Amino acid sequence: MISLFRFKDFLYSSDKIFFAKRMLVRVSLRCLKLADTLTFGKAGRFSTMASMERNHNFFFRQLFDLESSTYTYLLGDTTNKEAVLIDPVYEHAERDANLIKELGFKLVYAMNTHMHADHITGTGKLKSLLPGTKSVIGKGSGALADIYLKDGDVVRFGSHQLWAAATPGHTNGCFTYISHEQCMAFTGDALLIRGCGRTDFQEGSSETLYKSVHDRIFTLPDHFTLYPAHDYKGLTSTSVGEEKKYNPRLTKPIEEFVKIMDSLNLPYPKKIDESIPANKVCGVF
């Protein structure tokens, strides 16, 4: 892949222009291939996506917690067997650890998109089940972890990497993890499918959230697939283009968005009094 900083150096001769165009076509075809690997269960319901593109040794699986409607994501390099787990849930730590062992992966990082209020993270428990695992979270989260991310940091596993983009607003420590190679991003609670995270507790700010989504997520290419931390209607993923067109909140001007968020009148989160203290110490309590 040609870096953005070097790409302009290829635009000054006809043979290099041809090379650059060929590279862009390859990238576009790679992203199109990703859509062909989805598998469906009964009634067309998405079940798993085991590998986004085996030729590029990238493994991906989406897992689910029924109680909190939380998605957990396992990403791995099938060549050197390094893997990362995004937003694990405490009650499913054994499930996730067993799956990782069965697949022959070594979990290098257990990551959170933010400090959750609706469930206890499984990162601390996974560290004991899979020695050598390191916990990862945004520096502004207020939670304990082995590694604190700053905006622009890169998390590497095998030959793959996730770019950490700060997307505060739901909480101060929210991050979106972006794979440019695989044309996908993990948005946490910042951007949900046809929705977004609430902003009425935990340092929430509607104005900040709006700017985070529009500046850091909606600026990604429209075909990028987005995977949220939760969904409550049985949907599994969306895209940048879909949310820019159909999101009922974030398609509005910022002033209207703030009014919408201020009038939601959502109930107090059921597990927040249990989850926040536990998540401050990596789910080990």
From TrEMBL:
GO terms for molecular function: metal ion binding; sulfur dioxygenase activity. Its EC number is 1.13.11.18. Residues 69-230 form the Metallo-beta-lactamase domain. Keywords: Acetylation, Dioxygenase, Iron, Metal-binding, Mitochondrion, Oxidoreductase, Transit peptide. Transmembrane segments: none annotated. Its cofactor is Fe(2+). Pfam families: Lactamase_B (PF00753). It catalyses: S-sulfanylglutathione + O2 + H2O = sulfite + glutathione + 2 H(+). It is an enzyme of class 1 (oxidoreductase). InterPro entries: Metallo-B-lactamas, Mito_Persulfide_Diox, POD-like_MBL-fold, RibonucZ/Hydroxyglut_hydro. One of its GO terms (biological process) is glutathione metabolic process. The keyword Mitochondrion applies. SMART domains: Lactamase_B (SM00849). One of its GO terms (cellular component) is mitochondrion. It is found in: Mitochondrion. Belongs to the metallo-beta-lactamase superfamily. Glyoxalase II family. Homodimer. Monomer. Interacts with TST. May interact with RELA. This is Persulfide dioxygenase ETHE1, mitochondrial. It comes from Pieris brassicae (White butterfly). The lineage of its organism: Eukaryota, Metazoa, Ecdysozoa, Arthropoda, Hexapoda.
